[in-house]
Design a protein that fits this description.
The protein is an alpha/beta fold. The chain is globular, with a radius of gyration of 21 Å. Helix 2 runs parallel beside helix 3 and helix 10 runs antiparallel to helix 12. It is built from 13 helices and eight strands. The chain is about 50% helix and about 10% strand. The relative contact order is 0.11.
Length: about 325
């Protein structure tokens, strides 16, 4: 079995070029950016990585490139496809033989699926793979929400070592952490819940799309809690809130990719039919990134801000004299 991990895992985006072909050179640059930012694990071919658009050849190229570039620095968990058991097991076999540390199993997006069918699906796949397996509870897309009791049952399936919980109900997270056995890894998959989940949820970390953009801040948040640097934890928590909201602009993962491009980590645009952000949304996102300290404003913007601050100071002085 491969390595497990605690801390922040990044479901990394998939870079495409202008013709929407897989850009492996940019993928290597993204991997370097994440590792240099001290990310704890890399998860290629996730929903954030537009895995639904990948051919099998692209899937294999993605896996091979990430393994080569990571070079055993951090664990790699590959997101599996969702549409058929045959395809899931084919990619799982390739990834396992290539040497990844684990796999991420998402629920099928079948409108009429029942809870029992979902649990049976997880049990079947877990019995057929020979690798660490993280299962994902994703009620927004699957339209089914696994109960704490069912998650506890799934945690005992072969090879299942952890859960990515995407429910927006925070109180469920500490209940899961308390119910499952020691050694079973629980991660939140909701960016806005990361600080609270780390502080009060008993999780081993988080696997969130924002880790593409601010891996350093999320890793520092996790470490700040563990070493009890309360002030810094709260400071980062405050910085992350507007960022997480801004990363929801447009269709997912358009804002994630736009943010990385602004940071100078060029990953291209989303694959069709997902559109790039509008100019209006790009400006909103840019201002959010400036506010979070991710990018610097232009000289013109700094001058405007300085002028506005000067005007406000004069107004305050005038008010005081009048008073």
């Amino acid at each position: 079995m491969g390595k497990k991990f605690k801390g922040i895992g990044c479901p990394c985006v998939t870079p495409f070029d202008e013709e929407e072909s897989l850009d492996l050179a940019k993928l290597r640059e993204l991997v370097d950016f994440l590792i240099n930012s001290e990310i704890n694990a890399i998860i290629p071919a996730s929903n954030c990585g537009e895995s639904y658009s990948l051919t099998d050849i692209e899937y294999h190229q993605l896996i091979d490139t990430v393994i080569d570039q990571v070079n055993n620095d951090v664990p790699i968990y590959v997101g599996l496809p969702t549409e058929s058991n045959t395809h899931i097991l084919s990619i799982a076999k390739y990834a396992t033989e290539a040497g990844v540390d684990g796999l991420v199993l998402y629920p099928p997006r079948i409108p009429s699926l029942t809870i029992q069918e979902l649990v049976t699906h997880f049990e079947f796949i877990s019995s057929k793979v020979d690798s660490n397996l993280l299962v994902v509870n994703d009620p927004d897309h699957c339209k089914l929400d696994l109960s704490v009791e069912l998650i506890s049952k799934i945690s005992k399936f072969d090879n299942v070592v952890g859960l990515v919980e995407l429910s927006s109900v925070f109180k469920k997270i500490p209940q899961i952490s308390a119910q499952v056995s020691d050694g079973f890894l629980v991660y939140t998959g909701r960016g806005l819940l990361v600080p609270q989940a780390i502080k009060e949820g008993g999780v081993e970390g988080a696997i969130v799309p924002s880790a593409n953009v601010v891996p350093n801040l999320l890793c520092e948040l996790y470490e700040a809690y563990n070493v009890e640097v309360k002030d810094r934890f709260e400071e980062i928590q405050t910085m992350l809130i507007p960022l997480e909201i801004g990363l929801k602009l447009g269709s997912f993962p358009a804002a994630i990719k736009a943010s990385l491009n602004m940071l100078g980590v060029n990953v291209g645009n989303p694959r069709s039919p997902i559109s790039s952000l509008s100019e209006k949304d790009l400006e909103k996102l840019r201002n959010i990134l400036i506010g979070a300290g991710c990018i610097r404003p232009t000289i013109t913007e700094e001058e405007t801000e300085s002028t506005n601050s000067g005007k406000e100071s004069k107004k305050d002085s005038a008010k005081k004299k009048t008073t």
